[in-house]
Amino acid sequence: MKNWINEDQVIGHCPWRQDIDDARAVADKLGIEFRVVNLMEDYRRLVVDYLLDGYQRGLTPNPDVMCNSRVKFGVFAAYARAEGFAALATGHYARRIECGRGFTPLHDNLTAPESGHKAPPTSEGYSLLEGLDQNKDQSYFLALLSQEQLRFARFPVGHLAKPELRALAAEARLPTAAKKDSQGICFIGEVKMADFLKAYVPEHSGPIVRATDGQVLGEHRGLHYYTIGQRRGIRIPSNTDDKAYVVTGKRAGDHALLVAFDGPEAPGLWASECRLHSLSFINEPMTEPRRLECRVRYRDPRVVIEFTPVGAVAPNGPSEVGRVIPNAPSSSVSAHIRFTQPQRALASGQIMALYEGEKLLGGGVFV
Question: Which positions are annotated as active-site residues?
């Protein structure tokens, strides 16, 4: 796939030409056809516009999750189907299994908060599990996939550890066997986020305000350069031993960046509950309160939560907590999340992935 940024002059290194050459060399070695599919316009419309709009509104978007659900397993999968392909395989460290076959939850104690009954087994279809190599698991980035998308997907390396995969590639004499792992913003490449935002989002300065007493400490260049929990780049000395300022919030009215000393008492830094919107489920939507696990960001460990759905707004009535209105699309349903342990730096716009043990159930967006 070729994305839009490949032909834009953005500061940073984006090795797309090398990636194409490497992919072509592997295809030649395997004796299979190689194509370059130009998805630049789709990528800009579905991912980059979402990213820029989010930052302009003070949110913290996740382009990698959206790229998977909208581009890789969206537009690109549609192209593959139209060309007669039976499936789309990617290098994600995740596993796809038929429902009811070979899956036992790692945590059998994940019961419904009040009833004490275990959740019923998933209906027919496919389930998505974490990658077997926990150091490389990428299931979090697939949290917004649908069952239809998962049916068409294949994850051939999800059952392997990275050293095993490299050994197999070396044994097959693949040109990329020792290639360094890629880093960066999805297909945008190795571009620093600050450089990317500087190129595309207008700066709007505002005050840096201490959240505990309202004192103005300085000025920032733009709220889009900061996210909740950030310590670097604030450029405000604490003048207090063993204390450092951390971003605790953003105030849209006067474009204020709120900061406080990093610690349990910092206003807005820690949360025991939150709200999710734009929920997406891989299998059946969850319509009743349940105890689950979640990841609040990539690389974080799973944590136990109490999940309570909040039904879609009826035409002539309010939302209902704990019950979903029949036939409402999952994207119109939100949920209230209560953590068993407070979580640090939950940023509006980011993605929460929902799990039952190693099984990915779906995900949603932080309000």
Answer: 67, 186
